[in-house]
UniProtKB/TrEMBL annotation:
<feature type="transmembrane region" description="Helical">
    <location>
        <begin position="51"/>
        <end position="68"/>
    </location>
</feature>
<keyword id="KW-1133">Transmembrane helix</keyword>
<dbReference type="Pfam" id="PF20151">
    <property type="entry name" value="DUF6533"/>
</dbReference>
<feature type="transmembrane region" description="Helical">
    <location>
        <begin position="149"/>
        <end position="170"/>
    </location>
</feature>
<feature type="transmembrane region" description="Helical">
    <location>
        <begin position="120"/>
        <end position="142"/>
    </location>
</feature>
<feature type="transmembrane region" description="Helical">
    <location>
        <begin position="214"/>
        <end position="232"/>
    </location>
</feature>
<keyword id="KW-0472">Membrane</keyword>
<dbReference type="InterPro" id="IPR045340">
    <property type="entry name" value="DUF6533"/>
</dbReference>
<feature type="transmembrane region" description="Helical">
    <location>
        <begin position="253"/>
        <end position="277"/>
    </location>
</feature>
<feature type="transmembrane region" description="Helical">
    <location>
        <begin position="29"/>
        <end position="45"/>
    </location>
</feature>
<keyword id="KW-0812">Transmembrane</keyword>
<protein>
    <recommendedName>
        <fullName>DUF6533 domain-containing protein</fullName>
    </recommendedName>
</protein>
<feature type="transmembrane region" description="Helical">
    <location>
        <begin position="80"/>
        <end position="100"/>
    </location>
</feature>
<feature type="domain" description="DUF6533">
    <location>
        <begin position="51"/>
        <end position="96"/>
    </location>
</feature>
Amino acid sequence: MVPKMFGVQTSVYKCLEGMVLARIRARSLHFHLLCHFLMSFIVIPTRSNQYYLLASSVVFFYDYALTLPQEYKHVWSKGFSTINALLIGLRYISIIGYLPTVALGFSPSLQKNSTWFVKIPAGIGIVTQCLVIAFLIIRLYAIFEKQHAVMYVMIPFALLSICLSMSVMAQASTLIVNEFSFSPGIISSTRLISASCLMIPDSNSSASLLRYEASYIATITFDTFVFLLSLAKIRHICHTTRWRDVRPTLAVIMLRDGFLLFAVLATSNVIHLALYLRFWDRSANDFLIAAPRYAFVVSSGTNNEMTHALSVILISRMVFNLREAGTEVYEGTIEWRSRVEQSIRRMEFNPPSAVDGPDESFE
């Protein structure tokens, strides 16, 4: 009986041991699932920001590759001019700016021991913002047939927007995120600085938040004002040309006068502001983001990457399309028409001299 009882006890012990191990495995599985569930919310902020940076850079470089032939045709082969210098500066400074932005976005450890390095992309963004504003003012000045009142109104707005962006960059602190790594039974956390485009207001200064919001307001006001002025000019052109039976199509007007550029920039900034107001928790003392997965909305002015990419793309295409049509970004509609009419008159009053016979100069 003893061996039998010993066998029963052994079976009971094995059964109990199996139940305990099963319970431990179940709890371990639950722990693993819980960790993965938490990680899905923890990793999303960094990953979504990286996807955002990657999408912006892919859009920018893809369009850059597409427009390289136009750049050579309309810029490099035309010689030096102020517009060519501004356009080349805008395109290639943006390329240089994307390199540290993407590097810092995907390797935040690069900036652990450096406080100035994190603000390099923001500084480059302000330089490109100045170039974008210069093109907007030049084109709007041309649309309004070089009326000086346009310059008197737009230049103060532009200077205010640029100064506020510089102030935000100087006073902002860099967003800190926690990177969590998981191994069986262990969760380790590493505190990393996020991509440098995600600079936030200084949590210890209410003035920093006011400058931050003022930068948004100034940029959106400037872009919206440019958009409304160009819209008013388009309506005026449609109304005046209707009586002459020479009414151009709306698509041609939008393409020629850069209306599409103004509309996209204004819309992009308004959407960005809406996301900022929706996902930024102003009631928190440390200015936390209400939904971390949308942390990329924390940006200022045209320094956010997608608006930056769109502005460079659309300005480049506007200049190229205008030159394809035989005009320049600084040339107004009346000036362009008078130049074309003068060229037609010269052709009418100066016909080719050899009309009666073939040209024998090559024989």
